[in-house]
Amino acid sequence: MFTDLRLENSALFKDFEWKNHDKLNVIIGENDTGKTHLLKIMYSIAKSIEEFKIRQKTDKPLWKQALASKLLWVFQPGSTGDWHLGELVRKGEKRLEVEAHFCNNNLHFSFGKDTKKTIKNCTEVIQIQEKTNSLFLPPKEVLTSIDAIYKVHDIPGFDHTYQDLITAIRKVPSKSRGALDNNAPFGVQPFGVAPWGVVSKKTRSTLHLNKVIEEILSLFRGEIKLEKDHFVFSRKQEKYQMSQIAEGIKKLSMLTLLIKNQSLRKGSILFIDEPETNLHPGAIKKFMTMLYHFSMAGIQIYLATHSYFVIKQLELIARKNQFDIPICSLNNEEGNVTHSINNLRDGVPDNPIIDVSIEQFEEDLRMGED
Q1: 247: which residues sit within 8 A by CB, 6+ positions away?
Q2: pLDDT digits over 129-185, tens only?
Q3: From its phi and psi, is residue 236 left (phi > 0), alpha (psi between -120 and 50) or beta?
Q4: Residue 7: which CATH number?
Q5: Distance between CA 360 and CA 358 in Å, rounded?
Q6: Is the per-residue pLDDT at 191 higher than 60?
Q7: Which domain holds residue 281?
Q8: How many percent of the chain have pLDDT more than 90?
Q9: CA distance 317 to 295
Q10: What strand order describes the sheet that includes 223-227?
């Protein structure tokens, strides 16, 4: 899991440092403040280490090779078919520096503005004992186009956040590891015999993951299932193709698939960009509660949002449960992004999103007085 991140001359960030990350972390800011960049830089680090560890079993790779490839395919910097890592360096600067504390390891890499596809200055030895895996949920749902995106793997235009997510969704639950049968009704059989433990033992992780599934099923009164190599939404005795289902339903119901096939489990890191997209306020409230349960199940979460509703709901969760939720507020000041770190447990900090909400409220009051 991440605990610290420092960026120097990375995209809009001249000097950025965020310490003491927690289980559930929030990034806010107006458009063009670097929210998605932060998500993707951390995702690239975590996912490249995950893939590096897998390759170690059959090969002798270097982490810097896996990292360079991941950065290129996640950011796709530069013109199509001619990506250069140097495009990630802040304009007008010569060199990018990144430091991160991840799973008790101090990681570092840097490269210059003329770097193409090779990172030379990078932490050499990665010894991470923890079993981690990372997922990135984009604003747009992917189930409708899952087959098309999967078939065009490693084609410019579809970055690896989508490809990695689709690979995870298509993973078949392993009954030998105790995962739920993907087509069994909820509650018929326990899931998580391994690695979480049998439900009757009431392990914390299992109980919280069960709660997420319960919330999703109660919200939409149905679930997505895999049938004959394609996904359908099942509600009572009726079945619907993905093109017939609202995007919000697909976006949240996808989480059930990822829990059942153990792509979301204790030790996972979940990055979410604009969780409010395509969800009505009631569903957003439920989603924020799900994220709290994910974090209590041992899953680290980073989400970037524009929504006051999302921030306020997370503040209520933090205060109600005496639960720390760091919030990183970004502000673009003439091309230089500044930031401040607060804790939603102490209330919502001042930021442009709140300012606009207050302006709207005051305008409504003035109109009422007229």
Answers
A1: 140, 141, 144, 278
A2: 777 899 999 998 888 888 777 777 666 667 899 999 999 998 877 654 444 444 433
A3: left
A4: 3.40.50.300
A5: 5
A6: no
A7: 2-132+267-369
A8: 62
A9: 12
A10: 223-227, 230-235, 238-241
